[in-house]
């Protein structure tokens, strides 16, 4: 009997242990699932090489898997990241000595060193790299300008690893915005040994990458419409990275996004147009403004070959023939506002008077169908034509399709003799068309990397890898380069130079068709917290979590 009772007791203990283990396993599964985030992206990632990246989708991915000397904090301010402390200043602020964190590592376990920064920065300014945002270093990091112009060797750039953890940076002049620049992908480190081991395969898939940021990129091959960010356990601040995994899915249609959201397959989606009105009273609804400057680019020609859009009157006509107010009210309704300049409002302010840049510079290219028609007729006369056909290239999201249809109608209605043929391509193909300047008109824009007008105006310098319009103006170059260099210590004169530069770009030359400053309307699950989407700069998923 005693043996029988002992057997029963042992059986009960085993059952109890099994139940506890099952309960613990359930808790672990629930915890793991609660730390998995599901979000959407507007298009496929064209690439994740910080040197050659040239679009918002790529930089959004790069910002999660890499990290520079600084990273934007929760308030959007530069905070120490790979840098262990604020730099030692020498030579009147022209020389900065940074110490790299001792615990900074790549995802394969190798240390992040000062040499990784030296290698990456020199690669960015090497003309062979054709880095779109190499000009961010122009007139700022010592010798960057002659190197970018092919007049000096990249090894002469003002950056040097003094030892494994000490980085010296030499500037042309002390630059107030330099710390902000260091939060951007152009200034992120890269591991030379790993890159050379991968050869031409580097950054073509998640298998050919290592990273030093909060996450690693997984299940990406350059073409997939979904991928994952997985917590990087080698990251120096991993204790503050709450999400184990972020699942990303490309969704180009708002109806599809809503279906995924309502069925619990997405934790956050963006809305536009009629969907904003429909969900504006929903408890999950949010709306905010952004620093996105959206415009049409016009190809004036390249390699010495001019196009019909090289005619200033044709460009002015196109720039004044679209009813932008109707566009933001009817199609967007997400907090976007008409923009009659390139630099957006409510973000950048005069260092002396604190007046908004946009308000100071005013409306440079307004909707004016009467003036548009006058310029159109004069332009056609000057190019010797009675009509003109222009191809408008744009991405394939539902919103972009609606926008191009609206602009097609407006332009053809207000400019007799104009035919607009819309060419719809994938977002990735749209980026390629932009960079290769293989377009006539193109729907594009820029969200800015840091809170200064320079981040918008720097793109249109003559022969800049980021300038894909054919625009070139010596006075404009002088003003913008001056704002980066010799005027950097005179805040008010620098500000005046940037104001004048924007007037040259748009009022005098109608280089772009400014459309609107983007807003952001979205639905977000209450459990999703600490998703940081700044007005300026790429989104930051470091602290994202479900609670």
TrEMBL record:
> According to the lineage, what is the superkingdom?
Bacteria
Q: Does the keyword Nucleus apply?
A: no
Q: Give the residue range of the signal peptide.
A: 1-18
GO CC terms for this protein?
ATP-binding cassette (ABC) transporter complex; outer membrane-bounded periplasmic space
Return any one Pfam family short name. SBP_bac_5
GO biological process per UniProt: peptide transport
Regarding the membrane, this protein is recorded as: Lipid-anchor
Q: Where in the cell is it found?
A: Cell membrane
Q: Enumerate the UniProt keywords alphabetically.
A: Peptide transport, Protein transport, Signal, Transport
Name it. Answer: Peptide/nickel transport system substrate-binding protein
């Amino acid at each position: 009997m005693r043996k029988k009772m002992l057997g029963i007791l042992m059986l009960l203990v085993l059952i109890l242990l099994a139940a506890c283990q099952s309960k613990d396993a359930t808790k672990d599964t629930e915890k793991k699932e609660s730390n998995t985030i599901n979000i959407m992206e507007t298009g496929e990632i064209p690439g994740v090489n910080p040197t050659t990246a040239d679009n918002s989708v790529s930089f959004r991915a790069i910002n999660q898997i890499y990290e520079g000397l600084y990273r934007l904090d929760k308030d959007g301010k530069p905070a120490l990241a790979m840098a262990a402390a604020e730099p030692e200043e020498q030579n009147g602020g022209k020389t900065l000595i940074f110490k790299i964190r001792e615990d900074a590592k790549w995802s394969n376990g190798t240390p992040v060193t000062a040499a990784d920064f030296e290698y990456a920065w020199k690669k960015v300014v090497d003309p062979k790299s054709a880095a779109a945002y190499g000009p961010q270093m122009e007139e700022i990091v010592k010798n960057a300008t002659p190197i970018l112009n092919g007049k000096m060797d990249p090894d002469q750039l003002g950056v040097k690893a003094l030892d494994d953890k000490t980085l010296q940076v030499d500037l042309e002049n002390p630059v107030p915005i330099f710390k902000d620049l260091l939060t951007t992908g152009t200034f992120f480190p890269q591991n030379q040994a790993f890159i050379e081991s991968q050869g031409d395969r580097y950054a073509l898939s998640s298998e050919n990458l290592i990273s030093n940021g909060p996450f690693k990129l997984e299940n990406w091959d350059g073409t997939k419409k979904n991928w994952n960010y997985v917590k990087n356990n080698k990251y120096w601040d991993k204790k503050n990275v709450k999400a184990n995994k972020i699942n990303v899915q490309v969704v180009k249609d708002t109806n599809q996004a809503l279906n995924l959201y309502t069925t619990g397959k997405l934790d956050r989606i963006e809305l536009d147009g009629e969907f904003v009105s429909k969900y504006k009273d929903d408890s999950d609804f949010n709306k905010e403004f952004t620093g996105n400057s959206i415009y049409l680019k016009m190809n004036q020609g390249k390699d010495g070959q001019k196009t019909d859009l090289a005619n200033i009157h044709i460009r002015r006509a196109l720039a004044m023939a679209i009813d932008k107010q109707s566009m933001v009210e009817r199609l967007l309704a997400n907090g976007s506002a008409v923009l009659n300049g390139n630099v957006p409002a409510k973000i950048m302010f005069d260092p002396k008077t604190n007046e908004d840049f946009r308000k100071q510079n005013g409306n440079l290219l307004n909707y004016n169908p009467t003036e548009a028609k006058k310029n159109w007729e004069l332009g056609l006369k000057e190019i010797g034509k009675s009509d003109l056909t222009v191809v408008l290239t744009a991405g394939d999201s539902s919103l972009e399709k609606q926008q191009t249809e609206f602009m097609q109608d407006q332009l053809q209605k207000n400019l007799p003799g104009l035919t607009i043929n819309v060419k719809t391509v994938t977002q990735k193909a749209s980026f390629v068309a932009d960079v290769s300047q293989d377009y006539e008109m193109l729907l594009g824009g820029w969200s800015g990397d840091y809170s200064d007008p320079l981040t918008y105006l720097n793109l249109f310098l003559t022969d800049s890898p980021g300038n894909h319009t054919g625009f070139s103006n010596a006075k404009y170059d002088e003003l913008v380069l001056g704002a980066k260099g010799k005027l950097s210590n005179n805040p008010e004169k620098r500000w005046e130079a940037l104001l004048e530069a924007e007037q040259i770009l748009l009022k005098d030359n109608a280089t772009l068709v400014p459309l609107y400053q983007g807003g952001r309307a979205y639905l977000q699950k209450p459990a999703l917290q600490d998703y940081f989407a700044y007005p300026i700069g790429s989104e930051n998923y470091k602290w994202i979590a479900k609670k």
